[in-house]
Amino acid sequence: MKSRSIKDERKEIALFRSRAFAAGVFVFILLLLIVSRAFYLQVVQYEHYTKLSKENYQKHIPIPPVRGKIYDRNGETLADNHKEYALEVVRDKTENLEEKLTKLAKIFSLSEKDLKKIRKKLRTRNRYQPIEIKKNLSRKEIAIFSANRPRYLGFDIAVRMERTYPLKNIAGHVLGYVGRIDKRDLKKIDKKKYKGSTHIGKAGLEKTYENLLHGEVGYLLVEVDVRGKHKKELGKKRPVAGQDLYLSLDIKLQTKIEKIFEETGHIGAVVALNPVNGEVLAMVSVPSYDLNMFVNGISHANYKALRENPDRPLYSRAFQGAYPPGSTIKPMVALAGLNTGMVTPSQSIRAPGYYRIKGKGRRYRCWKKSGHGYVNMNHAIYQSCDIYFYDLAYRMNIDRFSSELSKFGFGKKTGIDLPHEKTALLPTRDWKKKRYGTNWYPGDTVNVGIGQGYWTATPLQLAHAVGIVAMHGKNPKPHLLRAVKHDKRNSKQEYVPVPLNPPVVLKKASYWNEAIKGMVNVVHGPRGTARRSGAGATYRFAGKTGTAQVFGIAQGAKYNASKLSKKLHDHALFVAFAPVKNPQIALAVIAENAGGGSKHAAPIARKVLDAYFHPNEGENDTEESEG
Hints:
Layout: H1 2-44, H2 46-55, E1 58-63, E2 70-71, E3 77-89, H3 97-107, H4 112-124, E4 131-134, H5 139-147, E5 155-164, H6 172-175, E6 178-180, H7 183-188, E7 199-201, H8 204-208, H9 210-214, E8 218-224, E9 230-237, E10 244-247, H10 251-264, E11 268-273, E12 280-286, H11 300-308, H12 317-320, H13 330-339, E13 349-351, E14 354-355, E15 364-365, E16 373-375, H14 377-382, H15 386-405, H16 429-436, H17 442-448, H18 459-470, E17 481-485, E18 494-495, H19 511-524, H20 531-534, E19 542-548, E20 571-578, E21 585-591, H21 597-613
Parallel strand pairs: 2-10
Antiparallel strand pairs: 1-8, 2-3, 3-4, 3-5, 6-7, 8-9, 10-17, 11-12, 11-21, 13-16, 14-15, 17-18, 19-20, 20-21
Helix pairs in contact: 10-21, 13-15, 13-19, 15-17
């Protein structure tokens, strides 16, 4: 019995020692981990946690800047900011929230759908963060809440600045709009610069000049407790407002042009610019849309209606619409012929009403079936003789043709300060090979000679090109920004330098006058295609009609608009500049699917010119009968 007891004691002692050793090892490892962690936190991460501890009681609250305004050349407001009042709640500062929400829903006409969204925000957002209950409060709603404010602790009315476009759809495609910052925007912007901001430029000039318009964010430094409640203000950095922009647009002229289109019922575009310095005076695309719809997020139904509208109001025809330029480019083609030595001003050809490439059977028709007889350059321009330009283009060949016409800006962007400008197309031999895998044929060259076939241009390109002709080769870049005001406290504006492209230089300066002479006779000559639109003008101007085919006509077939849908009717075009001496305005007009250029586009151009030169007088009503 005694020996057995001794053995049990020895076992217990051994077990105790092993457990004590294990416990000692565990404690040692634990202490080692604690010491290591303390060393890491207090030595290695000292600076990081020192900074973090300060931020625990100091907080930077961003103060968003006021966005810069946009004005026209005369100081008319195009994009403004107005105070918006919104009801907000801070969850931590109120009790019986659900009960109060139910009562407020009746006062502010909140639907069950609205309440569902509010409750979701309240569940997912920080309890100390203001949550929007309703925006755009009316005066009546503000008055009712103010009278009952003591009953709704934690609720308050916040004042915000909201973007507004007082003219709604006028110059909509130029101005563009702002919208709420989304995930795509967050990938592109410097998030520090947009702290506290909810909106950003999404389209048009609002997007192009976002950096100027946005301003610089400010900060309020406050002391907060461990729960995040604000205790006191420690400092403040005021935000810097965005810069105000002054555009080259004359909004009165712009509005008159939009009204002219409204009266005619046409869809289309007008671009009017100052050929001396490239300032865009008007840029109209019809139809347009109310910019204010996009500021706080357009509804799905409204956006769908805009997207599915067959007249495409979201599409800017002025600088994105690519149309066959038709006969509007004949003066430029004539200049190309002179510059390449393919023709002289006095050289005449017989125009029997059709053109045939030697050795080929196909006939290329003129709009005048009986033909124009013998015509020189002047006659060919003002009577718009297709045969003359078929022949000239064919003799130039596509290589010389494209090289010369590209000097006028065709086939390339003008560089205007707007996003998503289209290049349109000035075709070349290589382009067709890459695009279709086929060779360029002489018949292709014949078609581009009258602005048809593969050739397309935007109204902006046409206005720019006719401006180059008006200025005998001077080539300022079209632009919309005229001046910037940096300081809100004074009226001084900083004017933006005029951007210049290399001039178009011809072998003989006299060539310019040959093309211009034909254009003057288009509107002032007794047989000009737009003579009725030129009648009675108090100023002398130069122009060129154009009719662009939308629907291809088979050899020998006749064009009958009455048997075609409206969308297959010809486009009506007209380009012009005025006065002939010392030009002040160059323009391009397109009326989609309207018919002949002389009948539908030239009268619009005349009304635009009258509105420019006689802004306080009634518009001249003219109509032509020839294409």
